[in-house]
Amino acid sequence: MPIDSHISGQEENAMLIMIKPNADEAQVAAIKSCVEDLGLRAIESQIRKQLAIAAIGDQGIAPNGFIESLPGVEHVLPIHKQYKLASREFHPDNRVVSVRHIPIGGDAIQVIAGPCSVETPEQMLAAAAGAMTAGASLLRGGAFKPRTSPYSFQGMEEEGLKYLADAARPHGMPVVTELMDPRDIDLFLKYGVDVIQIGTRNMQNFRLLKEVGQLQVPVILKRGLSATIKEWLMAAEYIAAQGNLNIILAERGVRSFEPAYRNMLDVSAIPYLKRETHLPVIVDPSHAGGAAWMVPALSLAAIAAGADGLMIECHPNPAQAWSDGEQALTPQELHALTRQVAAVAQASGRAYGQPLIDLPRAS
Ligand code: PEP
Ligand code: MN
Fold this sequence. Notes:
Layout: E1 13-19, H1 25-37, E2 41-47, E3 50-57, E4 73-78, E5 97-99, E6 102-104, E7 108-114, H2 121-134, E8 138-140, H3 157-168, E9 175-178, H4 185-190, E10 195-198, H5 206-213, E11 219-222, H6 229-241, E12 247-251, H7 269-276, E13 281-283, H8 285-289, H9 295-304, E14 309-313, H10 331-347, E15 351-352
Parallel strand pairs: 7-8, 7-14, 7-15, 8-9, 9-10, 10-11, 11-12, 12-13, 13-14
Antiparallel strand pairs: 1-3, 1-4, 2-3, 5-6
Bound molecules: phosphoenolpyruvate and manganese (II) ion.
Phosphoenolpyruvate (PEP) binds at residues 116, 142, 146, 199-200, 222, 252, 284, 287.
Domain DAHP synthetase I/KDSA: 101-342
Keywords: Transferase
InterPro entries: Aldolase_TIM, Class-I_DAHP_synthase, DAHP1/KDSA, DAHP_snth_FXD, DAHP_syn_2
């Protein structure tokens, strides 16, 4: 028996209904309502500039030839992958997830930077200014922290969300922060969180995935510590199946046999994912290497391998950080790194997301 047979779902049903280019709106609406009457979900996509409707669900088998006979239908294709909406079959072009004015997954490489944890208003103001000057386009900072020990700092919670938002606002930077519990969603919306991070430890928290799937807020889905790519894409499918396709996958290193560094960055996952899915792929070199000195090499490798962006821990004073200080870059180190990232991006036929500002010379 194949190891994943329990997720293969015998009743699973998925097809792409290709719509005739000359079909009118009423015909498209009628096709969608027929799909829904069958107990399936109807989700639109563009396939090589042609409108398609994905009909997906675990019930409702259409009688043979029924969908094909509807006015406006050109033909019907099966979706073979178990991750239907996350697959390139569903959406052959790269998906660009817009985070306010910042496109992720397009031509330009974007950098998300900031501390592991939100600590104080002063720390966040310095972190935001440092990240911005260094060339990052989004600000990160954890207010709810998934710590291995219950006795370690657990995050500033609501206050942290406020410090993060207040620090980012003057720079117009969107913010990224981790959600661990669906009960905090209202708080995240209240403080205008632009990107919800689902952390490694929650990659298969299916209730949490379903909840963020019901929002349209972009989601960064980090890879589970020992998750296969298929499990990871099935987790993305949970979010997409609820209607939120604004998903960004983040490779952050996987647990391996090697204790010399925190995790093993799975560089191979990057080109593999770019082939399998239309979703943007970013890399977190900080949690992969677990040491600041390793971050530049891993960042450049990730961009060379085709990643759409980086999420890098950066702290105004790493030695004083309340969590993950050993892997945090200083703003000056990040500034030096983004120049190298831009050069590798250019060599790979990509652009860099932000204009790079020179630091004033030390006198
Ligand atoms: C983080 O980004 O601070 C974090 C806890 O990451 P991960 O879920 O990858 O361990
Ligand atoms: Mn961290």
